[in-house]
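Suppose you are handed a protein chain with no further information: no name, no annotation, nothing but its sequence. What can you learn? This example shows the usual starting point.
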Amino acid sequence: MKLDCKVDVWDFKTIRKIEGFWTPQKYVDLLNRMDYSDTASVAVDELEEMCLLALSDNRPEESAELVLSYVFGDALRIGQVKALADDIIDEKLWVEYADISKHEQFFNCGQLLYEAYGGTFPKPEAVSFKVRITSKATEIKAFGNDNIETDLIRLLAQGMPENGLINRLFEKQLIEGNFTEAKDIIWHLSQSQTGLTKEFKIISSGYWFDDLKFTDSFRAVLKLYTDKV
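A reasonable first move is to predict its three-dimensional structure. Written in structure tokens, the prediction is:
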């Protein structure tokens, strides 16, 4: 089964943080790790500022190690955390780290550290954009029922240059079979449907989707899940 559709891209913008990741409780946790004396006395709307000030009292690599250790927990070994604490001062690990499943978390770490230290750390940059998929075929209802991130990237790749990053790195996965990296490429996804139109809001790294910045609309054909290997 194939879906022939029109894809519209709009509201494409660069964002500096992912709203909702750093919660008041997480600020409290970090303050406690820095031996802040009385977090209970800090107003909720002041916790972020207090956490940033406490971080900035340390050497950048010390704060980087603390934040990375908190966010990743047991997913990184102690030696890895120490090495990455040095790397994140100069490198955009949410782009450059080999394991893309960790990119979103590196972005969240980098965002907090950048706010605490300003230009000492790389400026955090992600992208947010909206996608509308419209088709005359009732098959639109089947779109995204199985591995929605895979279906979305296979569609969006058709609106990007053939020599673009996604098309070059994932040539085989864009055609058929498993595309396990898709859920790590798209960090956040929300959707709605009206009739034969589906709309999505996507947050990801510009590393993958900057090629869509000046794209308005395009036609695309997608092999739906019933034909997937």
